[in-house]
Amino acid sequence: MSSKLHDPFKTSFDSLDEYADLISQVLKCPITIEDANHRLLAYSTHDERTDPARISTIIGRRVPEKVINQLWKEGTIPTLLKTKEPIRVKNMEEIGLSHRVAISIWKQDEVLGFIWALEIDQSLKEEDLALLKKAADAVKNKLLQLQTRKNKKEERFQEFFWKLLTGHLKDQEEILEHFHALQINPPATFAILVFQFKKNISSKEEQWISYLLQTNQRIKILLYTIDCNQLIVLVSTDTFQNPFSELEQFVQVFVEKMNERYGIKDIISVFSSIYEDYQLIGKAYEETQSVLAIKNKFPYETKHIYNYHKLGIYQFFDLLLEKRKVEPYENYSLKKLHEYDQKHNSHLVKTLEVYLNNDANINDAAKELNVHANTLTYRLKRIAEIGEINFKDPNQKMMLYLDLKLEKYKGI
Amino acid sequence: MSSKLHDPFKTSFDSLDEYADLISQVLKCPITIEDANHRLLAYSTHDERTDPARISTIIGRRVPEKVINQLWKEGTIPTLLKTKEPIRVKNMEEIGLSHRVAISIWKQDEVLGFIWALEIDQSLKEEDLALLKKAADAVKNKLLQLQTRKNKKEERFQEFFWKLLTGHLKDQEEILEHFHALQINPPATFAILVFQFKKNISSKEEQWISYLLQTNQRIKILLYTIDCNQLIVLVSTDTFQNPFSELEQFVQVFVEKMNERYGIKDIISVFSSIYEDYQLIGKAYEETQSVLAIKNKFPYETKHIYNYHKLGIYQFFDLLLEKRKVEPYENYSLKKLHEYDQKHNSHLVKTLEVYLNNDANINDAAKELNVHANTLTYRLKRIAEIGEINFKDPNQKMMLYLDLKLEKYKGI
DNA sequence: ATACATTTTGGGGATTTTCACAAATGATCA
DNA sequence: TGATCATTTGTGAAAATCCCCAAAATGTAT
Fold first, then answer.
1. Which of A28, A233, B80, B208 is disulfide-compatible with A193, CB 3.0–4.6 A?
2. 3-state class (DSSP) for residue B29
3. What does the pLDDT average to over B239-250?
4. Rounded CA–C1' distance between A372 and D10, in angstroms
5. For chain B, what is the mean pLDDT?
6. Residue A201's pLDDT band (boundaries 50, 70, 90)?
7. Cα–Cα distance for residue pair B195/B205, rounded to 1 Å
8. What stretches pass through the bilayer (chains A, B) (predicted)?
């Protein structure tokens, strides 16, 4: 057998499964075909030899997330996304993966999916790899068909989602019908997630996002769409024990992966409260937007805050900023401290802020300020004197904290 | 000489000073005449023997405050206010007071003033005391004249003050003219003080108030008036180093004395910021009223707060209460804790509040709660679990504090 | 009534924090 | 330039807080 051999895949089948079986027969090993998001498209059945990773993939109709993660870390997937050649993947027992060969399926410069060939008994030879490459080419058209069909469905998703977000669908019955028409199981409880990117999201990035959302197995994504620099997602929270911490973990992982895998940094993410009533999707969306607005104003302070409930005092900041702009109030202590800083070019205000940020913990604050704890103690003594502050009075401390944050953003 | 003796005081003089000299000549000792507020009205000059207390009184044209305080504590003044008989006052070196006899001057059941007779060389005899009583009676009419003249002046004061408080006088020049017409030296800086009594202020209480204000030497009272249950005072703050702490001390002392001397409790006192512009007296007044409104809502929390600047977060409470009424927000942690309290009839919310009131100090809070410190530690651990609270996060703590206070007063 | 979970209290040691003092450095002003 | 004041850092002892354990008390459910 040479690479000039007659192409055994130049036949047309109705389903991808038949392709999988054919490839399996030719190469004499189990075959799996996935789309670009590692969803299972087809798998060969004639061969019963397999490995745990493949079993999980077939059972869950998608590649398990930890396998994907491992393949990213270890470099297989990045390579597959770069080359059209078959890639040999070594044994990775810890995730139940035995020896195998993978190849990506290309349409021009875009990856449509992957074929996996397990090397259970013997390794594939050079000519087998050439055959695999031919198989990948043959499968391409079938995948393209699937994709266009998917795109059309996608458009209907988009339309529906925007109607929900903008509150155009007022009737519960109607909404449920739409869900069913799109074959989405309507969730009992849901939330809106929004990821705000630095710049408008390009179509390349859109693909990456899509990939990340599809391959995640942490959370059930119902709908998602992109609006300028925002990725808006509707997720089901039905299966969660602690919905908020689960959502928090998810957004953190998402942001982390966008950075690790694609080098996209500074994504600001938020999510809404948990709702049951589909008519309130618009409200949930508004909620995310108001949280985003505050996070944009106070990025440092709200770094670890993702939803309205956790905003804490920042919930009030719009209101308070307004009040402060209107009335001629001035915080006496802060004024004094600013004057002192000005005169002696010291950093008492900054010191105070870090101290309060750190919950009045001298050690932590000193660490953040890179000074000796005694230095901070001394400064605080001075701050208390100059600003006439009693650090034992929670009311005073709170007011200082609020006014510190408020004066930072009075200009906005 | 007997008590049936011809009355030597049955003559009429133009000024009180002449009376003082006459009495001095008859009794052969220095004489001082004061009004009901211990302001010097007249003093004899023919006799040069005197004591430090009398010197200070004459120099300052009023009895020194510490002397008045001592005479109250030791019982002289209370007795003088009860009896028409002469009272012998023993030597009190610590305040520079040598032996003397005092008598009050009465018009029906009201005390108009006092006559003091110093016993420098020899004690007054029984017949001298009888003479003194006659003298007191003779002086009465002169004092009455003074008083009615004062009352008329008082009325003009009142009218002017109310015009200032209600902002009816807009012209700086005009205001200054009024001040001068009333022989008040216009202060460079001033503040408004308001004392809110439990009940409407009776005319009896009005006299006590007047007495306390007049005899105080801590602060310069420019004008005062009474409105239902409020005493409103305009004071000069020109001579103060730390105006706020001086004002604070003054109001505390005032409230204390109203209680000690007259048994009037639960006076709520506030004062405005320091102003320079007389046109802003109305604003200062409004400020006191808004602080009073908040102190009425949060009496416990604002017990030690007297002015707007010190209100701290309570400045915002009207605004925040409004916001909370409008939107359907609920503090998740507090909700959980309330539910727990309900179910297990425990006191986690109360515990949390006391803990936060005490600036997260375990010992202080435990003391206030009358439980062992370890008990509080345990409860806090439970509170953190149940309410999903991180006590190291100042934002969370602040929000809890705010919501705790807010929910207490949502009904108002 | 009994078993079980929760809460309260206490002891005592480890760990931190606080405090006072001293030395060194930096800034300021005549 | 020296004298003075403000600031920073270090040290070590005293005080306080934290933490773990266990016993007792209380409440709860079967």
1. A233
2. coil
3. 87
4. 9
5. 89
6. very high
7. 13
8. none
